[in-house]
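Researcher: For the annotation table, I need structure tokens for Nuclear transport factor 2 family protein. Please keep the output clean. Sequence:
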Amino acid sequence: MKSTQDSAAITQVLENYYFKGIYEGDINILRQIYYPGTLLFGDVKGQPYAKTLDQYLDGVAHRQSPKDSGKPFKGTIISIDVVNSIAVAKLHVKMYDFEYDEFISFHEFDNHWLIVNKMITDISN
């Protein structure tokens, strides 16, 4: 039963904070769900992507948000796998003119699920 409850809690984090924070460009919302040492890796338009959490949040703060751009945005949870205090969520995110598959790693700290790693790949080609 705990795994079902944990999956529901992670779903709430993703829908109410992650997708909302990205869509609105609100780093205060996003900062609440990221572990301070989080690293982000992947590729965008075939180019390597590697950022610290602070670099990522700075980019979010200084770009036009999807909400303000009027371009499509949709975040979809494909799957969530939970084992004890760790979890991985597979997501599909359509944002601006991009489509990303993402793997988000979580760890449970004091009954709160925080993102500890984010990996993305641009599949819009």
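Researcher: And a one-line annotation?
Model: The beta strands are 34-44, 47-52, 73-83, 86-95, 98-109, 112-122.
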